[in-house]
Amino acid sequence: MTDEAAIKVKVGTWVKLTGFEPDEEEIFRVVPEGRADPTKNEIPASSPLARAIHGTKGGDKVRVDLPGGKRN
């Protein structure tokens, strides 16, 4: 069994994030450049969100500067 909190975010990782809207969570997959598909919740590794969460683990808190403003 894998300890999900120990998995570091990298290309190919599915990530569940909270903090975009109160009591909501979003699930994204970080994918290689040119393979992102927003309809499948795939974001490119070069996106601000993917860069901010790269290398983090489950339970980590991050602050990211998105086009819509800073989010925790």
Short description:
The chain is mainly beta.
Q: Secondary-structure map with pairings?
A:
Layout: E1 14-18, E2 25-31, E3 42-44, H1 48-53, E4 64-66, E5 69-71
Parallel strand pairs: 2-3
Antiparallel strand pairs: 1-2, 4-5
| Span of the ends, CA to CA | 30 Å
Radius of gyration: 12 Å
Outline the biggest β-sheet: 3 strands, mixed
Annotated CATH architecture: Roll
Name the overall outline.
globular
pLDDT averaged residue by residue: 86
Compute the number of helices. Answer: 1
What does this structure look like?
The protein has one helix at 48-53; strands spanning 14-18, 25-31, 42-44, 64-66, 69-71. By secondary structure, it is mainly beta. It has one domain (4-71): Roll (Chitinase A, domain 3), CATH 3.10.50.30. The strands form two sheets. The protein has a three-stranded mixed sheet with strand order 1-2-3, with no helix packed on it. Strands 4-5 form a two-stranded antiparallel ribbon. The longest helix has 6 residues, at 48-53. It starts with 13 loop residues before the first strand and ends with a strand. The mean pLDDT is 86.
Q: Which descriptors would you attach to this protein?
A:
5 strands; 72 residues; two-stranded antiparallel ribbon; three-stranded mixed beta sheet; mainly beta; single chain
